[in-house]
Design goal:
about 180 residues, mainly alpha, 9 helices, globular
Length: about 180
Amino acid sequence: MARSPAGFAPCSAESWRAPWEMYAALRDADPLHRVVDGDYWVLSRYADVLAAARDTGRFSSAGGLTFTYGERERLGITDAAPMVMPDPPEHTDFRRLITRGYTPRRVAAIEPDVRAFVRARLDRIAGLRGGCDIVAELFKPLPSFVVGRYLGVPEADRASAAPCSTPRPGCRRPSRSCSG
């Protein structure tokens, strides 16, 4: 089977459903791919990604986690970025504080609640007729639920705390939400 030419189109219908051929073509033919229209680079080989993650002088998450510029300003979070955005040493210090509590015993203690949350979401989705955006209904709220539960955020306050722990991807596709 012939591979398609290397290119990066993360929001196209084809690559959204099955991105593997796109990533394979990038790894094989253009592992350091320049996206001219987006003014950014895509690294597709593990060693290159690892090297970039370690070289925060040239590669940084501080401006945001999307394909667009000005994300933090648009979200109104210029004073306090979410934990995933700062570069070392700020990220390292924050991560050191958080990881002390992630012991196997504490993680196991919240497992029943996480399983119940996922089961309830899947049961609700299974009862729907027609299409569903599983990202909006399960994959997006799950990390916020886990973080909130792990940190002891009261259940009544979790909905208002969720935006603080949710990354905002730059690629948004229109879809029908299951919650309506």
